[in-house]
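Hi C.,

You asked whether I'd gotten around to modeling the 271-residue construct. I have! Everything is below, sequence then structure, no commentary in between.
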Amino acid sequence: MDWVDRFRGRYRGELARRGIRIPPALPGEATAEAAGALLALRRPDPEDARPLDSFEAFVIENTAVSTAPLVPEIKLHLATELTPLWEATEATLAEKGLPPPFWAFSWPGGQALARFMLDQPEIVRGKRVLDFAAGCGIASIAARMAGAGAVVATEIDPFAAVALALNGWLNQADVEIWLQDVIGQANDPASADGFAVILAGDMCYERPLAERMTAWLRTLAAGGALVLMGDPGRSYLPKERLESLTTFSVPTTLELESSTRQETRIWRLLP
């Protein structure tokens, strides 16, 4: 039995007990193979691998519990200059077959969304919220802390899903996690399982993803959902049919960004 089979079988049940939902098939074999490569690196004997323990151990051992500068009330497992993950460049990770650890950093767009909801909790209070490509989960956790009725965080990286769960536990925030690609999924905000608010933080850094995501989000906005985007001026942010709601000056680091502060806007995406 290969790693993917173990993941879909035994591992699915273990994650489900921690609030992480696994679809019947992974959206991309590459993600599973990359995760399997990490397990092989950390545990040379694949028959001895314990997937859930390995994922959790990787997140814990390669991060430190800290806070994002704009949202000090939320604790997160993040990479710091004291942890090995900080020095792992995208090229090095690619050589080892590992997905980039976007989940280990609190990006400006996510921080701005989190601050916006905590400062104006009426935006999400009592509502079902979907946090698309949630990363470390800072916006998901903030939505729950602001009084959202339910929060679903989506990711396609198993490491991110586990980091999300750990960060939710750190903050005693009940966040449901879906490990699947949800782009294209229909939504009825008025239904019991629909989402009234959709969050997308810092997702416009790559053209194909940004265009695919934006087209989908516009259909959700047309259906009545409030679609909020947090963006620090990424290259592929839509140029039209956006309403600026507010701006935050987010402290950043030169290791990740081009300046020590990023002016980050909260946009409402219009149909």
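If it helps when you're writing up: The mean pLDDT is 82.

Thanks,
B.
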